[in-house]
Design brief:
It contains 17 helices and 3 strands. The protein has helices spanning 2-15, 33-52, 57-70, 111-125, 130-141, 149-166, 171-193, 198-221, 232-245, 249-258, 261-291, 308-325, 330-352, 357-379, 383-391, 397-408, 414-462; strands at 76-80, 84-89, 98-103. A 3-stranded antiparallel beta sheet has the order 1-2-3, covered by helices on one side. The longest helix has 49 residues, at 414-462.
């Protein structure tokens, strides 16, 4: 009988959870309310600044909770949507909970400030005093953008030059693409000063690029000798890459993977509207050019890439200019250039293996993102900053251009219309592949980075 009862007890223990085995609830320390409010306010402002400079939502939540935990304020609940952030804290049953909510302005990438904010969070965890932390944050918040507007416009123009080098364009096509990109950048700055929504700014910039390409095509068709080798299509393709380069594709994909549905949905909708602005500007410009008798030649063949040395030079130039455009420091710019070359090498090897451009783009972005995640912490640079700059050379600008041109010139031709939409779907597949590859690299690289760091720390203790 005793044996049977013991067997039943063991069976019950194997099936059910013993309530007495659960650890007792820890007593929550009494925290001064004023101290708690000051800590929550600092965490809130740091989180707001991180969102404003383009950080992913998961990184923002982790940073806010790390700051509050460093000053003994836990547990804290952080809730982020696309344009707001809320931080809540409940000290105990006898204390009243309080919540702070702030509206976040539209994110503008500033990777130098992002790097400073990440360093501030690390120093707070290392024991930085609350008063000193608040003073340092105010210094970071008031730091102006690293580069002057003229430098940013020049960087945007050189980005188009990088695209032309990638495809081995003639010197004249490269020069016109440079002028078109600078013109589009200046128009976008003017629309920004007029406080127009960025959707119209994208459309205006794309229209300016298309106008430069249309004038080039008119001069070429009228027998101007110097314009014989000019490529209007490549000028527009370079402009498309310019318009799409400033979008936070990696952060949007990362938010979706991390489960921040509202933030990811808002960012993805924002990306879709900005892309639609580019489409409207180009379609309108091409249609107007056709009406004025300056129609573009339709080519179903993708532009051929230039020699390997020119490709690598173009890739490095694109990565550097994107990093400068996003306000990166010199170290981040160098890492971005290196990762851009690695991403393009992986992409080229995958394309040579005949696995398709979308999958090759994903593999190139994966390689750059994974290596960038391992390097970022060691070199104290933001991983999302170097990854964003590295994948821009693979943005499908020429594919978007061919698809739009086919749709505008269809004029009732069903086959050509289907071909145009097929090109756009192909471009969308490449864009999703870039975002997915970059996000997967961040996800896979984080645990490997943490493991390597723990191994280094253990070896340091042994010595």
């Amino acid at each position: 009988m005793a044996a049977r009862k013991g067997w039943r007890v063991r069976l019950a223990e194997a099936i059910h959870v013993d309530a007495s085995s659960r650890p007792m609830t820890e007593a929550i320390l009494s925290i001064d309310e004023m101290h708690a409010r000051r800590v929550i306010e600092l965490a809130m402002r740091i989180a707001e600044a991180l969102i404003a400079v383009g950080a992913a939502a998961n990184e923002v939540v982790l940073s806010a909770t790390r700051v509050t935990a460093a000053f003994g304020i836990r547990p804290v609940h952080v809730d982020i949507t696309f344009n707001s952030i809320a931080v809540s804290y409940h000290g105990g049953e006898s204390d009243l909970p309080f919540t702070l909510i702030r509206v976040v302005r539209a994110p503008v990438p500033d990777h130098a400030k992002l790097q400073q904010l990440q360093a501030l969070v690390a120093d707070i965890e290392a024991g930085l005093d609350l008063t000193e932390a608040r003073l340092r944050f105010h210094v970071v918040r008031r730091t102006p953008f690293r580069y002057r507007p003229a430098v940013i416009v020049a960087a945007q123009g050189l980005l188009a030059v990088g695209v032309c080098l990638l495809y081995g364009a003639s010197w004249l096509t490269t020069l016109v693409a440079l002028l078109a990109a600078c013109g589009a950048a200046l128009v976008q700055r003017w629309t920004g000063r007029m406080h127009l929504p960025f959707f119209f700014s994208q459309a205006a910039g794309a229209l300016v690029v298309t106008a430069f390409a249309a004038v080039t095509n008119v001069l070429r068709t009228h027998g101007v000798a110097v314009f014989e080798d000019a490529s209007p299509g490549l000028i527009v393709a370079a402009g498309i890459v310019l318009m799409l380069a400033g979008m936070s594709v990696v952060a949007a994909a990362q938010d979706a993977i991390d489960g921040f549905a509202l933030t990811a949905g808002g960012r993805i909708l924002d990306l879709a509207l900005l892309t639609l602005g580019v489409v409207i500007g180009i379609v309108g410009g091409v249609a107007l050019a056709r009406r004025l008798g300056a129609g573009f030649p339709l080519s179903t063949d993708p532009p051929t890439l230039g020699p390997a040395a020119m490709q690598m030079a173009g890739v490095v130039l694109i990565a550097v200019t994107v990093a400068v455009w996003n306000g990166a420091t010199a170290r981040t710019i160098l890492v971005s250039a290196l990762l851009g070359g690695i991403a393009w090498a992986g992409f080229s090897a995958a394309v040579a293996g005949d696995i398709g451009v979308p999958l090759a783009s994903a593999l190139g972005a994966l390689a750059a993102s994974f290596i960038g995640t391992l390097m970022a912490h060691r070199l104290h640079v933001p991983s999302i900053a170097v990854t964003t700059a590295a994948i821009v050379p693979m943005v499908p600008g020429s594919v978007v251009y061919r698809g739009l041109l086919a749709i505008v010139g269809a004029e009732g031709d069903t086959v050509q219309l289907i071909q145009g939409f097929s090109e756009l779907f192909h471009a969308g597949a490449i864009g999703l592949a870039l975002a997915s590859g970059a996000s997967l690299g961040l996800v896979l690289g984080a645990p490997v980075r943490d493991t390597l760091q723990s191994v280094v720390r253990r070896r340091g203790r042994i010595r």
